[in-house]
Design a protein that fits this description.
3 helices, alpha+beta, 29% strand, 5 strands, 5-stranded mixed β-sheet, 119 residues
Length: 119
């Protein structure tokens, strides 16, 4: 579902973008927002900005989404480290990171579906 929702915004880009989907307690999408736009193989994930936006929107959950213009959705080491850092920061304000989805042209990687233990 997240892949299909975000594909129109991320398909064909020649740079990485970081988006966040904000959800309420019933997992209803409150909003989604592009948080950053970067280069060919990286984009900034500003944890404070994500937390502030989540709290302002009264989100209980968020889903982090970013793209890999290379076409390979496999997360890199930095992706995994940033995911863990965001999860830990959000926990301090009782907001849960439901998933981190990496979108490529014709595929995606979901930390939740792959049962990555950080989430």
């Amino acid at each position: 579902m997240i892949y299909r929702m975000m594909l129109p915004d991320l398909r064909g880009l020649d740079h990485e973008e970081c988006w966040v989907i904000f959800l309420n307690r019933a997992h209803f999408v409150l909003s989604r927002r592009r948080m950053s736009s970067g280069g060919l193989d990286a984009t900034v994930m500003d944890i404070k900005q994500i937390m502030r936006t989540a709290m302002d929107s009264a989100a209980q959950y968020i889903v982090l989404v970013h793209n890999h213009p290379s076409g390979n959705p496999t997360p890199g080491r930095d992706d995994c480290m940033q995911t863990e850092a965001l999860r830990n920061a959000l926990a301090t304000v009782e907001i849960s990171l439901l998933d981190h989805v990496v979108v490529a042209e014709d595929s995606y990687y979901s930390f939740l579906e792959e049962r990555v233990t950080q989430l």
